[in-house]
Design brief:
Layout: H1 9-35, H2 42-89, H3 92-102, H4 105-119, H5 136-151, E1 155-156, E2 159-160, H6 161-186, H7 190-211, H8 216-220, H9 222-246, H10 257-264, H11 266-278, H12 280-292, H13 299-328, H14 334-364, H15 367-381, H16 389-398, H17 404-417, H18 420-425, H19 432-443, H20 449-452, H21 456-486, H22 488-512
Antiparallel strand pairs: 1-2
Helix pairs in contact: 1-2, 2-3, 2-6, 2-9, 3-4, 5-6, 6-15, 6-21, 7-9, 7-21, 7-22, 9-21, 9-22, 10-13, 12-14, 13-14, 15-21, 16-17
Length: 513
């Protein structure tokens, strides 16, 4: 909230409280509905907590997405206002001030932060706006303004270079708004469909028993408890998967305090380092993946979190087995208990890795979007006087997600390898468009930056047109996957809570008859 709404402490707390009140009300109503037909049991209480967590996270993501969309619309208008005022005399500070005066409240706050940072950029005590920008579009606009302050504006083919860059940025924001609107429309109601069947479990059981009392033993026995637990876990897992398909760029910005503290513990650190040494190659590959997805934890912290979550999963599975024993009187063999606990631990251990792979896969689907962003940055900087290859690479690395690991390697090797680093790195990204961009950088060794990137304008037009088509395809593909799996919990509830109990009881009655 402090990133999207960087206002005074009092206003920030009040705004956050308004959002949290809405989340708490949603959770309380859902808890009442879930517990209305249920008798107290440990296993069902755990399922209720899973569902409430899912509802709360969905509400939070939806609220932040709505706020960020509002900021994108405001930024579009802000760019138009700055562009209109800058045309008259080329005075950036006056253009920003006038745009701030007529902007809506949220955008005016960001405009003031940008203006203060630009005015005092030479003072080290002033926080640079780069560190608090809500997304890449705000950061790009600030970068453009900073370049005008540092190097001044210039005319290219009789047109202001700054104004031309504003048009590029406005186009990119328009594409992003269209994509997000389409995602919201295509995914409308899907998250609810994954969770709603859990609310129906207890009412269905009550209705079944009221009509056929003989079904009580089945719903209250081992079969009923196990199916309820499995349905709850599957619904939660599918919900998380659909959530990641809808919001592929959602990231934890801060590290959990308990992860940081455990990572500093000598005993835990030694254990994790032993695991890393045993799986050296896999750990290096995992570290690359973590960097690519912008994961907040390093490789050691990831393993610490992974081990702790595995231990928690094993403890929860043990609690569930004890709960089932207490509810049904069925005693599990000690070997089966231990095996069940270990299986749950292995699943959680694997799930942590699968989550990273899924995030990386979703980000790889957006490589062309990132390439368009790189081309926009190059177009904004290539005409700037005194700009260097390293300056452009630094800006690209700031805005990068899918190619972050490759760009970090280039920046690390560039000081001692020079232009040869682009020959070495070519092909590592696995994306032709990025490799062509590396060829442009290599060409800067024997021609000016402006000449080396002379064809970027035309390539950008091609990639924007292609990117629009790919956006539609990716959104439709993600929504199709989400639609298919969203109905799995509903189908499973119908099968396990309605069809199977009635069929089994019916077969039993026929046998007696």
């Amino acid at each position: 909230m402090s990133i999207l709404y960087p206002t005074t402490r009092f206003s920030l707390i009040r705004k956050t409280a308004d959002y949290l009140i809405g989340v708490y009300l949603t959770v309380m109503i859902a808890a009442l509905l879930l517990m209305m037909f249920a008798e107290f049991s440990i296993y069902y209480t755990l399922i209720v907590f899973l569902v409430l967590y899912a509802l709360a996270s969905n509400r939070i993501y939806a609220q932040f997405d709505k706020l960020e969309m509002s900021l994108l619309y405001s930024l579009q208008k802000f760019l138009e206002d700055v562009k209109y005022r800058f045309r008259f005399d080329g005075m950036l500070e006056e253009a920003l001030q006038e745009a701030i005066n007529i902007a809506d409240y949220n955008m005016a706050i960001h405009g003031e932060k940008m203006y203060s940072s630009l005015k005092d950029y030479h003072l080290t005590k002033i926080t640079d706006y780069d560190e608090i920008a809500p997304n890449s579009y705000f950061r790009t606009f600030y970068m453009m303004c900073k370049n005008v302050v540092l190097y001044g504006d210039k005319k290219v083919d009789g047109e202001s270079y700054f104004i031309k860059n504003l048009s590029y940025l406005k186009d990119d924001i328009g594409i992003e708004i269209l994509k997000r609107n389409k995602v919201n429309n295509m995914f409308m109601g899907l998250l609810g469909i994954t969770i709603i069947p859990v609310f129906a479990i207890k009412p269905i059981e009550k209705w079944s028993i009221s009509n056929i009392p003989e079904l009580s033993s089945m719903h209250s026995g081992l079969f009923g408890i196990l199916t309820t637990i499995i349905l709850g876990i599957i619904s939660f897992a599918i919900y998380n998967f659909v959530l990641k398909l809808k919001y592929p760029y959602v990231r934890d910005m801060e590290k959990a305090e308990w992860v940081k503290r455990l990572s500093d513990n000598d005993l835990m650190r030694k254990l994790v380092l032993k695991i890393i040494r045993l799986k050296h190659k896999k750990s290096l590959e995992l570290e690359r993946k973590l960097k690519n997805i912008g994961y907040p934890y390093d490789i050691i912290e990831f393993y610490v979190k992974r081990l702790v979550m595995t231990f928690i999963a094993m403890c929860v599975s043990m609690i569930l087995i004890v709960s089932i024993t207490m509810s049904t009187g069925v005693k599990f063999h000690s070997m089966w208990m231990i095996l069940s606990v270990f299986i749950c631990g292995i699943i959680m251990y694997a799930y942590q890795y699968f989550e990273v792979v899924l995030k990386e896969s979703l980000m790889l689907m957006n490589r062309e979007e990132e390439l368009v962003r790189f081309q926009t940055i190059i177009l904004m900087l290539k005409e700037t006087d005194r700009i260097s290859v390293k300056d452009i690479l630094n800006q690209m690395e700031i805005f990068s997600y899918s190619f972050k690991g490759v760009l970090e390697e280039i920046l690390y090797k560039y000081p001692y390898m020079g232009m040869k680093v682009f020959d070495e790195i070519k092909g590592k990204s696995g994306f032709l468009g990025f490799d062509r961009l590396m060829d442009n950088f290599r060409a800067c060794d024997y021609m000016s930056i402006n000449q080396a990137f002379g064809d970027v304008d035309k390539e950008r037009e091609y990639y924007i047109a292609k990117h629009k088509q790919d956006n539609d395809f990716m959104v439709e593909e993600r929504s199709m996957i989400a639609k298919v799996i969203s109905f799995v919990p509903l189908c499973m509830v119908i099968i396990t809570k309605l069809i199977i109990p009635f069929v089994v009881e019916g077969m039993g009655q026929i046998k007696i008859f």
